[in-house]
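User: I'm putting together a small comparison set for a docking exercise, and I want a reference complex before I start. The sequence is below, and the ligand is L-homoserine. Could you produce the 3D structure with the ligand included, as structure tokens?
Assistant: Of course. I'll restate your input first, then give the structure tokens for the complex.
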Amino acid sequence: MINIAILGFGVVGSGVADVIAENADSLSQRLCGEKLNVKHILDLRDFPDHPLGDRVTKDFDTILNDEEVLIVVETMGGSHPAYDFSKKALEAGKSVVTSNKEVVATFGAELLAIAREKGVSYLFEASVGGGIPIIRPMWQCLAANKILAVDGILNGTTNYILTKMFAEGWSFEDALSKAQELGYAERNPAADVEGLDTCRKISILASLAYGSAIDPKKVHCEGITEITAADVAAAEEFDYRIKLLGRCADVNGKVYAITAPFLVPTEASIANIDDVYNGISVMGNAVGDVMFYGRGAGALPTASAVMADVLDVIRDCRKTIGWGPENPDIYCDYESAVLRFLVCADKAEDINHVFGVEAIEVRGKFYAITGLGTEKALKEKVASIDGARFIRVME
Ligand code: HSE
């Protein structure tokens, strides 16, 4: 019998318990006959009607001091006390498996170092891409590559909202409330729609790709709250879709990361990733472009990734994964990236005068795709036009 504890019995934590119950036989088969037991569940609430209701405790020390608990599954969300509990569990020699991108993005290097020192595991497959295998493939299967760029639709809620708004004509509010009902959104959905969740996830992927902790606070972050129906219609006129992307890239050995809405060419695979699905394109210098696709949020997809890590701990095959402390010299300015903008202004002649391109009219505004330039130079030009705005274009 292998005993685990679950911290936080919300959407993901209860999904983990459901997967353990539902797949008990196949899990046991993959563990050479060993059985998994959820010995404790930490939550502030009681669950009297749940089959595991008698395992619920409000006292973390019960778990910390129980030597039979080998693995702590942290599905609490938020930084505190999730980080504090994870740290204590690792220091006590327990492995920790988490879906908590906030903790991994912010405290990953420290927790990974403790895990290494203690000879246990800190695993976080579920922290990026929900049920999509992405951490392990990047760490293992793409290990021979220099990672040139990662572009990902990393947030199910915003992708669901954008898809429903654009394809079904739903309002932003209706789409968000449906995403909350389906268990996709964060407790505070501002983290989804303002890009913070994507920002944390791209920090994790950048840290993994480049070996230095990439601080989410140093990742330029924009959400989808400023995107209008006219922007979407204009993008379609130019044969693009608008997607919220997390992007990181190597520029001559330095790294930048950004979270922002981008125009994506309609024929690109990433443009056709809809609803709660996430898609991540990883460009390696040897392998070329590799695409990962699947459900990026929700109880069972996320629990699927959590349980993969639990099994890996038990099989003892992933004691070290991850990255080291932040290298302050690794960063380059995201504004040095060369790209195009979709520019929007009130007068076609202003766009023509500043960018030398013809604009089209969409719902009373004028739009054009600019020529290539650095982000910094293009922004300066946009700023010279009264009331003009821009959205970045993915090449
Ligand atoms: N709120 C997140 C999303 C949950 O919508 O993708 C999964 O990390």
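The two ends are 52 Å apart (CA to CA). The first strand starts at residue 2 and ends at 7.
User: Thanks, that's exactly what I needed.
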